[in-house]
Here is the input.
Amino acid sequence: MHKAAHEELRLAKRMARLGTETAFEVLVKAKALEAQGRGIIHLEIGEPDFDTPRNIVDAGCDALHKGFTHYGPSAGLMELRQVIAQYVGETRRVNVTPEEVVVVPGGKPIIFFTILALAEEGDEVIYPNPGFPIYESMINYVGAKAVPVRLREELDFRLDVNELAALINDRTKLIILNSPQNPTGGVLEKKDIDAIARAIGDRNIAVLSDEIYSRLIFDGEHHSIMSIDGMKERTILLDGFSKTYAMTGWRMGYGVMRPDLATHIARLMTNSSSCTASFTQIAGIEALCGPQESVDVMRAEFQKRRDIMVGGLNKIKGFSCRLPKGHFWTTPASQRCPARLSAISAKATCVSASPTQSKTSKKHSIE
Ligand SMILES: Cc1ncc(COP(=O)(O)O)c(C=O)c1O
Here is the structure.
């Protein structure tokens, strides 16, 4: 063997600060057990178990046959950016131009790129906890200070705006909001969003509003901070196709932000993936412009499963579980075993630990 193979791996120091999303680690372990012939019901990874609706698959296949197999612009195909601008404009009741839209491979790169572009050492970034683990991972990675704002069960996992306000200071560069929220299913109400905007006031603080579950709300409506007067210019809206249209494997999401920031985020795309797959983007146009019934069917099914799962959990001695108002997880509380349970299937054999345990959770059990 070559001598270099035995030498120490000299990783950059920042790699020690990079976290992970443990659901993907559990998935690898579960797949390995499956390959050995063990029966596994997957509740670890957060994705719809439905197939992508037929009209979207057909549009993707058609695009392949028509030659959408080449590089495209880093910010996304103009046709898709126009459709997204119109969709976000209508759903968030703001005026959006295609220049404010950047299409990326999944919603996740918008988290990665936004934090990379805006936060650095000396900055503070406020993020929800428990929350999607990539927020904390990326804040630490860029050397900024991660400032958690607790989500409390007694508030149905809506954040306490007074607590948020107390965390804002001159070093706050970015606030991350997520509604409907992963993993708790908490949904911010209009009054919460208004109060958050008031707490930010006229400070030059950016808000990354992760709204990837905006179409998976069971009770009430979706409210975006982008809709509030004076907030659009400071908001980076994250949304995508993965959850709404069961397109997790297609890898496509987008950010909507002020055009000068969009240019920088597109430059990060040029430096990383070059562009999102072109045929995927054509399928994205069909997703947003085609029939929407499949979205309603999936949401109704998730709601049914939620009710079964939460009802069942609340019957177990020592467990309590709030009814999530959105998306497809439940967050039961237990003295013995805090866990995030997916409502994707009614039976659980493979679950992910709460994202609050992201740093230490080597202890997933697959039974
Ligand atoms: C809150 C939240 N934001 C973003 C993402 C990333 O979505 P995508 O798969 O489109 O990258 C996820 C995925 O689980 C999520 O839960």
Summary: DSSP finds ten helices and twelve strands in the chain. Residues 46, 106-108, 132, 178, 182, 210, 212, 240, 242, 248, 253 surround pyridoxal-5'-phosphate (CB under 6 Å). The chain has one domain: 9-367. The domain at 9-367 is CATH 3.40.640.10 (Aspartate Aminotransferase; domain 2).
